[in-house]
Write a structure and sequence with these properties.
Elements (H helix, E strand, L loop, with lengths): L1 E10 L2 E11 L4 E5 L6 H9 L6 E6 L2 E2 L8 E4 L11 H11 L4 H14 L15 H13 L5 E5 L7 H16 L3 E5 L3 H7 L2 E6 L2 E7 H7 L3 E8 L2 H6 L3 E7 L2 E6 L5 H8 L3 E10 L2 H14 L1
Parallel strand pairs: 3-8, 3-9, 6-7, 7-8
Antiparallel strand pairs: 1-2, 1-4, 4-5, 9-10, 11-13, 11-14, 12-13
Helix pairs in contact: 2-3, 2-4
Length: 299
């Protein structure tokens, strides 16, 4: 288990992380979210021991993270951190060696993942000769080649098409299922919803929303009603509790202030013709993120 307890970090007089606490259990995928500059990268660097915190504690399985622990951590950075003149094989050996692995074990793992990602033919190709998506695969392989106990993924799907995203997801879930603690950061909220059981949203280094994704969505009052019927859009907009109405293809998406207004909308729709769909859904994480972060970030 990773524990971040009351951690604070200043850069001179600038408060980058403000009394941040969270836990990531074994076999759990945890979302660390926020806009650029919210403190995510600083938090990652403190977890990795690359920079010192001013206050608080960070432990992995009860132990302070130092060079005796970092071999158990894998980190996929948002920025490319590959050495372009090396071959894929040389790159993997370099990273694996830094993690204390033997070359034969590195190459065995490399062959396994190259085959899994269908890029075995690139083993002896230089990094600079690969596409952006294939470079991302190599960077991911290097992050997981040591079978990490803690895996930090910062925008892991950058440059990937949907098929390759699915391949990444399968491997990430495999690590979760065998007990790895995973921190996942992405600006794509739909990816976070697919993965994360718990999350923290940061604004200016401070947690402004945290907890299980299920509870966060349940407790967010606003709901969406999806309607496929012959309705009058102007009447929908005029109903009490309705904040917004959008038409997408043949369906209307009606945003309401809370679930107490569901009946108001339903009573109107049931009198309409050609009612094919009336579905109430929780707000998306993207909607919750925008409303939670938007106003606070402008203060």
């Amino acid at each position: 288990m990773l524990k971040v307890e009351n951690v604070t970090k200043y850069y001179d007089d600038n408060l980058a992380v403000d009394n941040l606490s969270f836990e990531v259990n074994d076999g759990e995928i945890f979302g660390l979210l926020g806009v650029n500059g919210a403190g995510k990268t600083t938090t990652f660097r403190m977890i990795l021991g690359l920079i010192d915190k001013n206050k608080g504690n960070i432990t992995l399985d009860g132990k302070k993270i130092d060079y005796s622990i970092t071999d158990q951590i894998g980190f996929l950075t948002e920025e490319r951190s590959l050495m372009l003149k090396l071959t894929v094989k040389e790159q993997a050996i370099y990273y694996g060696t830094l993690k204390g692995m033997k070359e034969k074990d590195i190459l065995k793992k490399l062959d396994y993942y190259l085959e899994k990602f269908k890029i075995s033919e690139y083993k002896n190709r230089k990094i600079k000769e690969l596409s952006k998506g294939n470079q991302q695969k190599i960077q991911f392989i290097c992050a997981i080649i040591n079978d990490p106990k803690l895996l930090i993924l910062d925008e892991p799907f950058s440059g990937l098409d949907p098929l390759n995203v699915e391949d990444f997801m399968k491997v990430i879930r495999e690590f979760r299922d065998k007990g790895t603690s995973i921190i996942f950061s992405s600006h794509r909220m739909e990816h976070v919803e697919l993965f994360c059981e718990k999350l923290v949203i940061l604004v200016k280094g401070k947690s402004v929303l945290s907890g299980s994704l299920k509870d966060i969505k349940k407790n967010y009052q606003k709901k969406n009603i999806i309607i496929d019927a012959s309705v009058d859009e102007n009447i929908l907009r005029s109903l009490k509790g309705v904040e917004e109405v959008n038409k997408v293809s043949n369906e209307f998406i009606v945003k309401i202030k809370s679930d107490k207004y569901i009946k108001t909308v339903f009573d109107y729709v049931k009198e309409c013709d050609n009612v094919l769909k009336f579905s109430v859904e929780d707000a998306s994480l993207n909607e919750i993120f925008v409303e939670t972060v938007g106003g606070l970030y402008e203060e």
